[in-house]
Design goal:
The protein has 301 residues and is an alpha/beta fold. It has three domains: 81 residues, Orthogonal Bundle (Arc Repressor Mutant, subunit A); 103 residues, D-Maltodextrin-Binding Protein, domain 2; 100 residues, D-Maltodextrin-Binding Protein, domain 2 (3-Layer(aba) Sandwich), CATH 3.40.190. It is 43% helix and 24% strand. A five-stranded mixed β-sheet has the order 4-3-5-14-6, covered by helices on one side.
Length: 301
């Protein structure tokens, strides 16, 4: 039995809450995941997981074992990086993750220039609107848009991002320019579910400065910002997205930003990585390379 592999599978099952989710994440057959974890429990002579029809939970023994297994795997990974020379020279594979559209617009151009400047580094760029787990998914560095929870991660601020409401000029011609969020309710609405899951759009009161919610009834609800922006540009309705997600359409004149005086505070944007002793050279040089470029991009209107 490969105990390290079994530990990795156990970690993913515990973190995802089910064998099937771990199987999908790892691309490993469900039967293999179940067998490997069963073999590990048999080897230890202890029950690590309590299985139900809907989810799995750790036993007390499993909680203690999982903490040790996570630490062991992290130490092995760091030892391998040291042995390969990653801490002394910029080389090896650098794994990055970012939201899909932000990654395509802002991270990919930086990565292509970075690869040209550092021929001994290869990059794996994972674009996903789901926040990947840095340690479990073996990610070196991630772009995070929004407030960060308290954690042991190291965060480098690269700027901030407005949350805006935009609408096509033809709808403004049809409905008029709203002066307040309450007046904007007369517009049909395209809701981006990830940003506003309850179809309640958040604004800042011009009088009190306090945040206030305004309920919109969407004509269309979509799961990606690109779809929301495209539908808004076609005149389906007003939409609320992050500024970078509609910036090109605004520059082209297909959309106009409204209610700017009522925008909530911009959300911060960070590059984060796991806290560790010595930072591998590949990560140090990427931070030095990418941070000034990203700060300049996010300062641009």
């Amino acid at each position: 039995m490969d105990r390290l592999e079994a530990m990795r599978l156990l970690l993913r099952v515990a973190d995802r809450g089910s064998f099937s989710a771990a199987s999908r994440d790892l691309g490993v057959p469900l039967a293999t995941v179940s067998r490997k974890v069963n073999e590990l429990e048999a080897h230890l002579g202890a029950k690590l997981l309590v299985r139900t029809t809907r989810k799995v939970a750790l036993t007390d023994t499993g909680v203690a074992y999982l903490a040790s297994a996570r630490r062991i795997l992290e130490e092995i990974e760091e030892t391998e990086r040291i042995a390969s020379g990653e801490f002394h020279a910029p080389r090896g594979e650098l794994t990055l993750t970012a939201p899909v559209l932000f990654g395509r617009l802002h991270i990919l151009p930086i990565v292509t220039d970075f690869l040209a400047a550092h021929p001994e580094i290869n990059v794996r760029l994972l674009l996903s609107d789901r926040n990947l787990h840095l340690l479990d998914d073996h990610v070196d560095m991630a772009v995070r848009i929004g407030r960060l929870p308290d954690s042991t991660m190291i965060a480098t601020n690269i700027g901030s991002m407005r949350t805006v409401v935009c609408v096509s000029p033809k709808l403004i011609d049809a409905y008029g320019m709203p002066g307040t969020p309450e007046e904007a309710v007369r517009f049909p609405c395209v809701n981006f579910d990830f940003l506003s899951p309850a179809s309640n759009w958040l604004f800042r009161s011009a009088e009190t400065g306090q945040a206030t919610e305004v309920a919109f009834s969407p004509r269309l609800s979509v799961s990606t910002a690109e779809a929301a922006v495209e539908a808004a540009a076609q005149g389906v309705g007003a939409t609320r997205v992050l500024h970078y997600q509609c910036a090109q359409q605004v520059r082209d004149g297909a959309l106009r930003i409204i209610l700017e005086d009522f925008e909530v505070d911009p959300v911060p944007v960070h590059l984060i990585h796991a806290a560790r002793g010595a930072l591998p050279s590949k990560m140090r040089v990427f931070l030095d390379f990418a941070v000034p470029v990203l700060r300049a991009k996010l300062r641009s209107p």
